[in-house]
Amino acid sequence: MDLLTNILAATMVAGTPLLLVALGELICERSGVLNLGQEGMMLMGAVAGFIATLSTGSLAAGVVVAMLTGLAMSMLFAVMAVTLSANQYAAGLALTIFGTGLSAFVGAGFVGQSIEGFEKIAIPLLSDLPVLGRALFTQDLLVYFSWLVFAGVALFLRFSRGGLVLRAVGESPGAANANGLRVLTVRYLAVAFGGAMAGLAGAYLSLAYTPMWTENMTSGRGWIALALVVFASWRPGRLLLGAYLFGAASILHLVLQGLGWRSPTELLAMLPYVVTILMLILLSFDPVRTRLNTPLSLGQPYRPGH
Amino acid sequence: MLQLERRPEASTTLRWLSPLLALALTVATGFLLFLGMGKDPIQALTFFFITPISDLTGLAELGLKTAPLLLCAAGLTVCFRARIWNIGAEGHFLIGAVAASAVAVSVGEAGGFLVLPAVLLAGIAGGMAWAAIAAFLKTHLNCNEILTTIMLNYIALNLLLYAVHGPLKDPYGFGFPQSVMFADAALLPALINGTRLHIGLAFGLLAAVAVWVLFARSFIGYQLNVVGEDHRAAAFAGFSARRLTWFALLVGGATAGLAGAAEVTGPIGQLVPQVSPGYGYTAIIVVFLGRMHALGIIAASALLALTFIGGEMLQIAMNMPKAVTAMFQGMLLFYLLTCDAFIHYRIRFRRPLPAGLSQPAAPAGQEL
């Protein structure tokens, strides 16, 4: 029983950064913008949050700075991809390459330093539940916060006028524009939300998951999140499930080693990436569903009046 | 007020000016950045761009780093022209290096003129096999090639680490994760005696020429171009997108695999975990900067090769983090894409009209 609880708890922690960054990207893609820069924004968030916390001693400051940094990075992308109608693939790649380089440059002097990260907080009563109590309700603040964000995004998309506007812009920017909606403003806001979430996800890594900074510490999570959004067919509910599934896959090698599995660590470490490809393959058995769920204008720049 | 307006025709001048403009902006930003860090900006930029290529050894080192970039970029050009977003050059490169090393290690001390071709062919085959996975996933299972090639890069890196920690590890290497040094028969000959420059650079130049011939003189190159410009037109013309996808990815895998093989049999002479400082990713920038053109990618490879050496130089001479290389590369791509926007658009200054007057109709020919 103890083992199960531990595995569940570790799954939650591993799934949280994926959930955060994927929720941001989901909103962004629902507006029709594909931002491949997640990895770069996460890394910038991670390094900025770490430096802020290290120098102020405040975790809250770290989180805020990380989100602002992610947001600022996403605005660079938005200027190119939304205002200047640049190719979204190329612009996103540029953001990842730039973010990877800049974060390594900025963080070079901070490698090896450590901070007090987020502590686990037990929610009274709920944390006394058998098995699940310690796994779900004895987590750090950001895990709980990610649930709030999830609920907010799900409700926003389903029930709010803003959600309707967002979806209209993503499905048919021309029609949305004809109805008086400001397509570019909506897309800017969606990209900004995606950036802030990616920054927060980065901060989760450098302030909670492993409270330190190392170069490239996201190790592909930004890319996995992009696959996750496709896997979830752009729906928040499936995204939540998917994030924890991917989280489980990324700690599978630790579990297997714990169970006494004798296999080279390097081979086990490739599991999350293999699982990601397998998930993409699973989706391909129903291409019609994927196509139906893809926001129609995804990846296509829009210029009002042309 | 400022308005962005579509040009009637794409500007050819800007298409070729844009990379230079981007470079100028990158240098200018670098100047400000070094100034902000409290370093002498002139000195830093000199160390970065000039010092590395001011003698023969430096130029040879530049050629040494140009070779893998040019090889990877040649293959990626074939993919990107057809809008196949292959991000997997890094993975193809690593698998090529591992496959070539596996052959070189198993041949051991045996000599003969066939050893080197066998080693290089193993690298090419390894890269192609790795690319074939992505091609199969795309053409038969509809998986997005960006995501699969990225994932395959991470898997390839772990396979490389497994190889140097396991099957290919030098048993007498004091526990270091690396293979034995290859025998002389498995090493690439030098291009200029006394330097580390090897004939890998010739491979790269040949690949660039091949790309030029492919797109200027062959039917399949034409088909790739059409698929990239308008995939529906290509379908109407009866071009098989599936066949072209396989072709482009296999070419990408072959050149990057060869680059990996040339790296282990050239300057390094053994398999090490740090066989690539990210050549496969940097090659993406090379392709964009080089305008997907043979001559362009040759020049762009040399420039980006310089950023690798310049970064090392700054690290040694001015105690700056090595990551300055990646930052300069990212900045360059960023500025390039921004400048590229003005190939299709131009900025118009329009005086705000007095209240009550409506916007005059645009003269014919401007609204396109």
UniProtKB/TrEMBL annotation, chain A:
The chain crosses the membrane at residues 6-28, 40-57, 63-84, 91-115, 135-157, 188-210, 216-234, 241-261, 267-285. The keyword Cell membrane applies. It comes from the Bacteria. One of its GO terms (cellular component) is plasma membrane. Keywords: Cell membrane, Membrane, Transmembrane, Transmembrane helix. GO terms for molecular function: transmembrane transporter activity. InterPro entries: ABC_transp_permease. PANTHER family: ABC TRANSPORTER PERMEASE PROTEIN (PTHR43370:SF2), SUGAR ABC TRANSPORTER INTEGRAL MEMBRANE PROTEIN-RELATED (PTHR43370). This is Nucleoside ABC transporter, permease protein 2. It comes from Marinobacter nauticus. The lineage of its organism: Bacteria, Pseudomonadati, Pseudomonadota, Gammaproteobacteria, Pseudomonadales.
Automatic annotation (TrEMBL), chain B:
GO terms for molecular function: transmembrane transporter activity. GO terms for cellular component: plasma membrane. It is a multi-pass membrane protein. Coiled coil: none annotated. Signal peptide: none annotated. Keywords: Cell membrane, Membrane, Transmembrane, Transmembrane helix. The chain crosses the membrane at residues 16-35, 66-84, 91-108, 114-137, 146-165, 199-224, 244-266, 278-311, 323-343. CDD domains: TM_PBP1_transp_TpRbsC_like. It is found in: Cell inner membrane. Its main location: membrane. Pfam families: BPD_transp_2. InterPro entries: ABC_transp_permease (IPR001851). PANTHER family: ABC TRANSPORTER, PERMEASE PROTEIN (PTHR47089), GUANOSINE ABC TRANSPORTER PERMEASE PROTEIN NUPP (PTHR47089:SF1). This is Ribose ABC transport system, permease protein RbsC.
